[in-house]
Design a protein that fits this description.
Structural Genomics Hypothetical 15.5 Kd Protein In mrcA-pckA Intergenic Region, Chain A, globular
């Protein structure tokens, strides 16, 4: 299982946006369907809401990947 950190600018991101940003889905529509089918876990629990707010420290399991939310450094 791979693991990657995903940096978000404002410290918060929605689940559907995260999957697209991380490159584990190609389109928002694909992400929506796969989330609704129960393929995503947030902090170990199945999540079916693509609008679920994620914050730094949250771990998302999806398609054999673990995505960790981190805050993007200042520009």
């Amino acid at each position: 299982m791979g693991r990657q950190q995903v940096a978000v600018r404002d410290g918060v991101i929605r689940l559907g946006q995260l999957l697209k940003l991380a490159g584990v889905v190609e389109t928002g529509g694909e992400g929506k369907l796969r989330i609704q089918e129960g393929e995503a876990k947030v902090n170990g629990e199945v999540e079916t809401r693509r609008g679920r707010q994620l914050v730094p420290g949250d771990l998302v399991e999806f398609a054999g990947e673990i995505l960790e939310i981190v805050v993007k450094g200042g520009d």
